[in-house]
Each structure stands twice: as C-alpha cells, then as structure tokens.
Write a structure and sequence with these properties.
Blueprint lengths: L4 H6 L6 E8 L6 E9 L2 E10 L7 H19 L12 E2 L8 E2 L5 E6 L4 E2 L7 H17 L18 H14 L9 H9 L1 H4 L1 H7 L6 E3 L8 E4 L5 E4 L6 E3 L1 H12 L17 H15 L5 H27 L12 H19 L4
Helix pairs in contact: 3-8, 3-9, 4-10, 8-10, 10-11
This protein binds 2-acetamido-2-deoxy-1-O-phosphono-alpha-D-glucopyranose and magnesium ion.
2-acetamido-2-deoxy-1-O-phosphono-alpha-D-glucopyranose binds next to loops.
Length: 356
C-alpha cells in the first residue's frame, strides 16, 4: 500500500499549515523526512521517521523508552540556555500515542526538528572532541539517577561480542557470492582478538561493571553542537537506549571521535587513531562524568574504544558475508569497506597503545 508523507504528517498533532516536505537520507537503519509548518508567520520544522521494524521488532517499546528518557532529561535542562536544543521533543499522534501506525503496519514517529545546530560526520579539531566528550558525559550524568531496569531491552545482546561472533560464524556459512574468499585476512585478525573483545560484555554480565542507562550509538553524528558556543547540546538517535554499561557509549564515542577518516573511507591507510583527539575527548568526558563513574568503569574506558570498534568490524563483516541484509549500502562492497576501515582503526590503536 502506497503511503504518502502527507498521510503520516496528518496523523500527528501539529499546529499550522504544512509548507514543505524534504527527504533525509542519513543513518543506516531508519527512513526519515522533514516537514516545515507555518503558524502565525513562524516556521517550525519536524522530523518524521519510520522505525525499522526488522531491526526493532517492538517499536512501541522503543518509543516508550525514548519518552521516559527525554522527559527525565527535559526536567534537568529546561532552565538552561538553549533549552529546546538540549533534548529531543517527541510530538504525539492525534490519538495521544508517541507514534502512528500506517496502513502497512509500519510505525512512524515525529520529533520537533532541532535547528541552529552543527553536526559532524568526523571530528574537525580537538575542540570538538573535547566538546563531544563533555556532551556524552553530560547525557550519562543526566541519566545517572534514572532507574535503568524500567527500560525495555529493545535489542537484546546488542553489544554482546560473543553473540556477534556467532552471527559472524553463521554468515561465514552463508558465504554470499563466495565473499569468504576476499576476507581471510580480516577474519583472521578478528578471531585473533575474539577473547579480548569479550571482556567488557563479560564484566557487564557478571556485575563488575554496573548497569546504567546507555545510548548504544554515541557516534559523533548523533550529537548536536551549538552554533553559538560549540557546546555539545543534545544526543539524538535514541532508538537503542536500554540498560547497559556506559563503556558501550564511551567506546562508540572514541571510535568516531578519535579517527582521522570516515567510517567507510575506502583508502584504509587514511584511517588512523588520533591521540590528540583522544586526550581532548577524555578530558571533556571526565569533566562531566568523572564524578559518578566507578573505578572499574574508568579503568575500562581506553579498552572500550577498541572493543566497540571491533564489534562494528564484526557486524559489518557479518552483513557483508550474509549478503547485505542489515545495513543500508550505497554500493556492493560497502560493508566490506566499513569492516576494513574499522580494522584499520583498531590496528592504529594497537600501534600507538603504549602512547596514550
Ligand atoms: C547503525 O542507523 P544508524 O546509522 O544510527 C547501527 C549502529 C552502528 C551504526 C554504524 C540499530 O546506526 O549500531 O554503530 O549503524 N544501529 C543499529 O554507523 O544497528
Ligand atoms: Mg542509530
């Protein structure tokens, strides 16, 4: 059944007249478009997103998590400057729910669009690294008194390295288009690091690392920066919020904020781990998160960057071997490129390990 953008928009409680609709192609998982409304001469924009129900089988639980977490953060930020930019605002549907279901059974949600911010796919300088670290630390700190057991686990075992390796082993059997012949070196490196990669998940499971609210996708382009002050104001893409260890979040922030190339840079030699960016990131992060972290959490930060980079390598390679069924790709080898670039980043960390 063909669904129009106007039909989706019409299901939500939005004041004013619709003036434009624009597609947005960011992110590997969900589909997004942006609308603009005019009310009394004022323009407001909205983000409408279809939640990928293959990846998130219970979109209602995703939205329930997002509503409770954003409301919690809003209470803590509503008196700060740029308050409207500090946390996403969920727009309810006309029936009061935080989503609408279209004629094909697909879930859609709407947020107020956050304007006047900068975003980055890659860190341009150490100041932005510092700011990112501080922003992620703030986010965790705002949620440090939130009872994580009240959240739904929307994707079980999301950062469970052991589970990711079993998925890789299954994908090796699928061996789509005989792709195994192209990835022997990559597999060898990843399997050599399998046991080390499992340490953080194991420490989380056995209770050495405390359970907290985690975002699980704290890559740099999921953070909005103030155009005025450069401050990291808001963490977006809240789909994977669930209970976890904060090291999942420090890890993805390190992976994306201390690298010299994009996640899918084809020339892997351009991908290096940047110690100056790491130092700035760490400093910013500790300023806002240092006070509530346990010693075990602090000790795990450095390793978390390597572990989350590894888990991404495993996941991209898995998707490549199973025939690109999970991530959106722009060309046939896209997942292979992503996997190789993650491995290059790990190897660059290893070469410099004693220096940071
Ligand atoms: C996916 O959809 P997007 O781009 O926000 C993925 C993350 C990966 C990321 C890699 C639910 O996020 O885990 O880190 O791609 N999200 C899910 O860029 O699998
Ligand atoms: Mg995401």
């Amino acid at each position: 059944m063909e669904i129009t953008a106007e039909q989706i928009i019409g299901a939500f409680s939005i004041q004013g007249n619709l003036v434009s609709i624009k597609a947005n192609n960011q992110g590997h998982i969900n589909s997004t478009f942006i609308s603009a409304f005019e009310e009394n001469g004022k323009k407001k924009k909205y983000t409408h997103q279809r939640i990928n129900s293959t990846v998130f089988p219970h979109p209602d639980e995703v939205m329930s998590n997002i509503v409770s977490v954003t409301e919690h953060i809003r209470k803590k930020t509503e008196n700060l400057p740029e308050a409207e930019r500090r946390v996403l605002r969920v727009i309810k549907a006309k029936d009061g729910k935080p989503f609408t279901i279209d004629g094909n059974g697909m879930y859609w949600r709407t947020y107020l669009f956050v304007d006047g911010v900068d975003t980055y796919d890659r860190v341009p300088n150490a100041d932005i690294s510092y700011s990112l670290g501080k922003g992620i630390g703030n986010f965790q700190s705002q949620l440090s008194d939130f009872d994580s057991t009240t959240l739904f686990t929307v994707i079980p075992h999301f950062h469970d390295m052991g589970m990711r390796f079993s998925q890789l082993r299954n994908a090796m059997k699928i061996n789509h288009e005989n792709r195994m012949s192209l990835v022997q070196k990559e597999l060898e490196f990843l399997f050599d690091n399998e046991e080390r990669g499992k340490r953080i998940w194991d420490s989380f499971e056995n209770g050495t690392l405390p359970m907290r609210v985690t975002h699980n996708d704290t890559k740099i382009n999921n953070v909005l920066f103030s155009k005025e002050t450069g401050e990291a104001l808001c963490v977006i893409d809240l789909d994977t919020i669930m209970p976890g260890t904060i090291l999942f979040d420090t890890g993805d922030m390190i992976r994306t904020a201390c690298s010299t190339a994009d996640e899918d840079e084809k020339e892997t030699e351009k991908m290096e781990f940047s110690i100056p960016f790491y130092k700035a990131l760490y400093e910013g992060y500790m300023e806002s998160a240092g006070s509530f972290l346990t010693e075990k959490e602090k000790e795990g930060i450095k390793e978390s960057g390597r572990t989350i980079t590894q888990i991404m390598a495993v996941r991209f390679l898995t998707d490549y071997l199973q025939g690109d069924t999970y991530y959106k790709i722009a060309y046939p080898d896209h997942n292979l490129v992503r996997a190789r670039t993650q491995i290059a980043l790990m190897q660059s960390m290893d070469r410099q390990w004693k220096e940071y």
